[in-house]
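Continuing the series of single-chain predictions for the mutant panel. This is the parent chain; the variants come on the following pages.
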Amino acid sequence: MTTTDVPQPGSHTPRLRSLPPLSLYIHIPWCLKKCPYCDFNSHAVRGEDPVPEDAYVSALIRDLESALPNIWGRQLTSVFFGGGTPSMFSATSIEKILVAVRALLPLEPTAEITLEANPGTFEAQKFADFRTAGINRLSIGIQSFNPQHLQALGRVHNDHEAHKAIAIAQKHFNNINLDLMYALPGQDVAEAKKDIETACSLGVEHISAYHLTLEPNTLFYRYPPALPDDEQSAEMQHIIEQTMNAHHYQHYETSAFAQPGRFSQHNYNYWLFGDYLGIGAGAHSKISFENKIIRQMRYKQPKEYLATTAKISVTSAASVQTQHTLTQADRSFEFMMNALRLTDGFEIALFQERTGLPINTILSQLDQAQQRGLLHRSDLHIAPTQTGRHFLNDLLQIFLPETGSSRIDD
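Parent structure:
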């Protein structure tokens, strides 16, 4: 395991008076097909190399057991199965994982337990069984309701299958998110509007609308498709926000809209610089202690993850490939990078509670952001302005440490 736990010379180590809420992220890296825009740690299933489902479930449980010393006595507020396509796994496997989670960690009675699913994996009985297994929130990767755009995105489902999947989901779940994308290859403003109107008309509790970006290490990055220009993209964003508002969805985070009381608990914890333990191939963790905050990453390749996790009985941290301790500059920047994604911003007291640092640590940056019209600030509260929300990267750049190399994404 690679570690970079380097002390900060000449500086007082900030201490946390209390630990933030803790979430659990479980990564299942396989999918039916790798989409050309996807830069997640996902791996298409090949017929000659079937998914080692049982072995992977056992590895996840060993991984969780090995992580317990870092989170003793802490309660989970949410669980999220991400991927890849976690719904490729059987309900029996998901239930086995959740049984282990409940046996090893206290889980809040009202904890949100989300499973990501794609329309190409929907079977009515299977999703009824997921509900029985303990999943209480479903996140469905629709991306578009337009068959041409789905084809351009390399999706394995069509528009009819998208509608069918949502109908099946609504029979078994009362907390559903739809993932949509806009600024797609060949998409015009009217088509983006139709997609979002269709999503709103279905009455789901949560909608995430992401601007397509060309990420390194993707097929689209190597062979860029023709995309809408900045003016068209901005108009699409404006129409999406207007349409969501007209259907009474609250725009609570850069790309997230929810019916009242239906914010994503798991993601909201991320935005407020909460803690999360990530298990599974390539999963990331952020874990706070009284005197330090660490980030970890598990081994990324599934075969390597399975091999190293098998050694956990010998080395308790076998599944962790890299670990580093956040510097003070990291703490303040990462807090702002997350919290400023929230439309309503954050209470100033939370900055010190989650970072251990006084707010005057970033006073000059706050002044600059306010002078540029990117922030609202009072004695108790900080929030991005509408301009700050629309030019979020410009706002976050102000808080970027001079020697830092942290990545800023939408």
